Amino acid sequence: MKDWIEEVFGTKKPIIAMCHLWPLPGDPYYDKDAGMKEVIAWARKDLNALQNGGVDAVMFSNEFSMPYLTQVPTVTVACMARIVGELLSEVRIPFGVNVLWDPKASLDLAVATGAAFVREIFSGVYASDFGLWNPNCGEIVRHQRAISADHVKLLFNIVPEAASYLGNRDIADIARSTVFNHRPDALCVSGLVAGAQTDTSTIHKVKNAVANTPVFANTGVRLENVEEQLSVGDGAVVGTTFKIDGKFNNHIDQERVRVFMDKVKAFRRGL
């Protein structure tokens, strides 16, 4: 199960950097005066900063499509496909996509753009800020096969942001049953919201429960904790800490990325 990580990312303990897309047409905070041209320019600037800073992979996400939907309209997927399509010739590293929070739409976008992986909520039932979260993994995986997306790796977020699992189940039990029933390519463990640190003890508990399945820290990985997080997990998804002053709404700071990745690469050399 772990072999695919080095095949896709070319390294152990990869850092997947988030390329957060500005609000899109149909989103409440879309800037219709600036239009899609500005959304694409924002994404291009961040993509270049991430790649030049040395990250291992990038994931395009409609992070600013707030408040999020669990079934997105067609316009969201169409706009994201345009953005990734326009940037595709500039992408030099493996990439994935995440249409928040719609797993079928994420797979559709992956097929359209050639993405190698998607991250989503594929299973479980949650009480969330967006209402009741109740994906049907059986339907999602059948959709994956139907659209010829078998090659797309599925990163299951089993501790979704701004949500709580309905049912009194330990995270280790959730991890074990998710792996047994759904065969995820990897599990992602998150903090409360974007930028909130993932509890290392939780990552450790999940790893102990599913030793043969990759586990990623999904939020809150920073320069001061990245070695601790990677010492337990198999990689990390990183967003906010790469931004100017570490603030969610800002552009990517290439120098912050470089310093972070230098530390990651030094850590990996010691493995």
Question: Which residues sit in consecutive blocks of at least 5 with pLDDT less than 50?
Answer: none
CATH class division: Alpha Beta
Question: Using only CA atoms, what is the Rg?
Answer: 17 Å
Strand content: 15-25%
SS content category? alpha/beta
Number of helices: 9
Q: Taking all residues together, what is the mean pLDDT?
A: 95
What's the name of the CATH homologous superfamily?
A: FMN-linked oxidoreductases
Major sheet size, sense and barrel closure: 8 strands, parallel, barrel
Q: What would you say this structure looks like, in words?
A:
The structure is a single chain. This protein has about 270 residues and is an alpha/beta fold. It has a single domain, classed as TIM Barrel (Alpha-Beta Barrel), CATH 3.20.20. Helix content is about 40%, strand content about 15%. The protein is built from 9 helices and 11 strands. An 8-stranded parallel β-barrel has the order 1-2-3-4-7-9-10-11. Strands 6-5-8 form a 3-stranded antiparallel sheet, with no helix packed on it. Helix 2 packs parallel to helix 9 and helix 3 runs parallel beside helix 4. The two termini are about 20 Å apart.
